[in-house]
């Protein structure tokens, strides 16, 4: 992402500056050159009504519109996403005198991938009580494409993080019960690392239980000997009904109905599973470490077990990771 040329310029108002941005040879000011302090009043009423403890601001310039955030004691954290790079010091100076209780975090000059990574670290929905959003109109007018992409990225990460935390909360007791049951099966499980790069140099077909499997099942059957087949547990019944034997199955879901997918399965097929998966007592199972504390404890007890946990919470995502882990040349 290209650096944007800008300069901090004095204004007629003592103690306040403005930002002169040079874009495509054209100069634009993000704040008034006469009375930039008045901008603090433009969103004061809106900010005073915020009850969430976290605010994400899209654009700020030098942050004058955000000064009232410091007077709202409900707001504990302000995350500013600013297109201009290396403007942090100038921004923090705006809040230095008035800020008493709010943590200010500035993500400046970052692309969407970097912002997504930062938000994954910053947003913990076991702690965050709510998120409010504020726009800096001048910044959005100057960089419309950037902030449009940023908003999509932020929305995506929040939905993922919130959903992930909800999943953890809903399945917490189930994860724990499964782990306790599966601990007794550890003696017959092998480490995933023992079959790493098993398919090195060979193509792999990953099969999920998506609706398209019905359209391609006959094509898969006619070419089943041309690649290794890695199936998620929910796709196994349709493969079995068409005489297709997968070379490997992945089963990571904690819910009991996964047992229905693998009822009467060919026990010679190896299965990648986790400590928190529903207990099946597979004859040939390979343990993959996930983020559950009991799973991590197992990894500390016997290191280098291996993992294909993508943190997506989906067996399809982990199946693709497993194909990569096994060294498939094409997926």
Q: What's the arrangement of secondary structure elements?
A:
Layout: E1 5-10, E2 17-23, E3 26-29, H1 44-48, E4 54-58, E5 77-82, H2 88-95, E6 103-108, H3 112-122, E7 131-135, H4 137-142, H5 144-183, E8 189-191, E9 204-207, H6 213-222, E10 228-232, H7 236-241, E11 248-251, H8 258-261, E12 271-273, E13 285-287, H9 293-301, H10 315-325
Parallel strand pairs: 4-5, 4-7, 5-6, 8-13, 9-10, 10-11, 11-12, 12-13
Antiparallel strand pairs: 1-2, 2-3
Helix pairs in contact: 3-5
Task: Please describe what this structure looks like.
The chain is an alpha/beta fold and 331 residues long. It has 2 domains: 36-161, Rossmann fold (3-Layer(aba) Sandwich), CATH 3.40.50.150; 184-325. Helix content is 33%, strand content 18%. The protein has 10 helices and 13 strands. It has helices spanning 44-48, 88-95, 112-122, 137-142, 144-183, 213-222, 236-241, 258-261, 293-301, 315-325; strands spanning 5-10, 17-23, 26-29, 54-58, 77-82, 103-108, 131-135, 189-191, 204-207, 228-232, 248-251, 271-273, 285-287. The mean pLDDT is 87.
